[in-house]
Amino acid sequence: MALDIGSSKVCALISTPDASRKKIEVIGLGIAESDGIRRGVIVNIDRTVKAINDAVNSARQQCNFDIDTVTVGISGEHIKGTIKNHVISSTNPQKEITKEEVVRLMNEASRMPIPIDKKIIHLFPQQYFVDDQDGGTDPVGMSGVRLESQFNVVTATTTSLDNVYRCLDRTNLKLENIILSSLASSYAVLQEDEKEVGIALIDIGAGTSEIIVYVDNIIRHTEVIAFGGDQLTSDIKTVIGIVKSDAERLKRDHGHCYVETMHRSDELQMPGIAGSSPKRFQRKYLAEILESRMAEILMFANLALEQAGIKEELKAGIVLTGGTSLLPGIEQLAANIFGLPVRLGFPKMISSRGLAPEVENPIYATAVGLAMYSFEKFNENISFKIEKQKEQEKQIEQEKEREQSRFVSISTNEDKYQRNVYEKNKIDSSQVESVSSESSINTDEKAEVDENNENVPKESIKEKLTSKFKKIFEQF
Question: 362: buried, middle or exposed (CB in 10 Å: 19+, 13-18, 0-12)?
Fold first, then answer.
């Protein structure tokens, strides 16, 4: 379930993946007015909890699914992005950068020291360096022992995150992901070729206007401006002198934010307060009020892009989304201020079935993007597990091959050893026979030599003669 906790509304969206078309099918949509949030920050827990419960229960009733796991978008002026570097030493004995090394770099960078009241919610790698050489956006396979990356580190205040967690806990919802709302909107409305060429998305909500910039498919900049559609409503309320609900309805039904593109100026009438006479004014007057404030918001966004040094890279221009972007005339006004092509961002990749007509609207860009982000992360986890299983199976096969190779080697060595022993035994046996033969020959020769040897002692000859005569006498 996607949960967009906005300043004017809470939107709960339940969807399923449409595998045949690689889209999502929206099967449940719940909306509840919210007055417990100011400029993207929760200021009243009880009111926010009630709005969340109302939106979630409405979405559940539409699809009859009791889903309790949510992906939540976070916004607010407290969101900050800074550029920081982190470096690790490779432990790969082959001195080659692997996927595991890149993951380890990300994990270590996520624990980099930051102010105690902040928490990292995103790390967007900008580029890698391998042994001080440019490693581009993918260093895997490069040779080196030192891996460094430049990150766009996005942080949020700990108290704001804690308030979100507290609201979810009181509504018995389990948090699956929490991401920047502008990042979610970019999933819903931006095209891949726009991200490559260079594009800035400005999500103009009720309380804030959020900026996210892509160049070369990399998130280069994020920023939150503390102005949104609520400021336009407040101006109408103050200048014309009507209640907030009437001012909001007037903006929505008759609003126009660029006087030059108005075709005609009808007379409008609003009921007076406490029985006073009705308020009558020209529509052009309302457009002047809206144009003044809308131009200020867009100029703040333009200044943010210029100060970030990123505006010149926006070859695909600007995309406007969010509820306030539906004001007629905003595209022409923005094009004049930015000096770039401008278009409206409508959610894409939605199946035509289910509640598609209701959510194909910039108002639901963040909610649709949250759902798409959730499915993408789910698929990434599945792919990672499959890849990990394949790697394990490959390692097992390699180990079997090594064991078999060692067995063959041992068997071959044993055969060689046995042959060597056999040959040695044959040699030893022939040597023994040769020595025995030589001994026999030497003994006979020695006997002959002894008989004919004149050097034999005389006592020995005498004994032999005495023994011979003794045998002769015994015969008689």
Answer: buried
